[in-house]
Amino acid sequence: MAKPKLVVSTGAGISAESGIRTFRDADGLWENYPVMDVASADGFRRNPALVHQFYNERRHALLQAEPNAAHRALVALEKDYDVYIITQNVDDLHERAGSKNVMHLHGELMKIRSVDDPDYIETLDRDHLDTTPATRGERGDLMRPHIVFFQEPVPMIEAAVDLVNEADIFVVIGTSLVVYPAAGLINCVRPGTPIYYIDPNPAATPTIPNLTVIKAKATEGMEILARRLADRS
Ligand code: OAD
User: Which of 27, 136, 154, 212 has its CA 20 to 30 A from that of 186?
Assistant: First the structure.
């Protein structure tokens, strides 16, 4: 018999217990930089050197971080469910934990892409993490961080909506639900689909039916969720 399809939308909160700071817990600053200077198309045009330097720093920090028990708990659910993760995070902690199906809505820190051809993407090797506005890829293209900046479209959103629409169970973990279109995924489930939202400081979600809020950090919340799912089956 086919396993039920469990679709999970994760945000910065799932990586918080791995030591990676969330965005909105620090007054619009991201690691001490104004978010719009380092994560917007305008910011990149204004000061590409700063933006490259910022993502270089994030890559070095990411190499010091490890997946936590919440990332691993999602891998464990693959035994009983077809698990699909849609993450807003640019870190690779889901992959390093061992999750099979991970879709990155906002890009990936360990990758760079051509400035002129969004489909040309290279993966950085761990010994050469630093890029500058003069960095060229193997094909000769000028390269930029593979990050979906504010003011840019989110190319994976349609595929993400399709996945959520096929979910038998939908789980949201550690996101403030303020950045669209990702925040709207919770409205794309089929009617009657159970939704679980794990967050120690959850966003207000007054009009969403079948929603169970688990007000807890990701690691503890995943233990609670695993018990709830076991009770359902
Ligand atoms: P936010 O920083 O907006 O929200 C983080 C959420 O994680 C908040 O709701 C916190 O309450 C929650 N949180 C904090 N600690 C937690 C923990 N230990 N366990 C679980 N949850 C915890 O991050 P996102 O919603 O992911 O975009 O932000 C969305 C997008 O905005 C990001 O992908 C990024 C940013 O600009 C880009 O970089 C393009």
Answer: 27
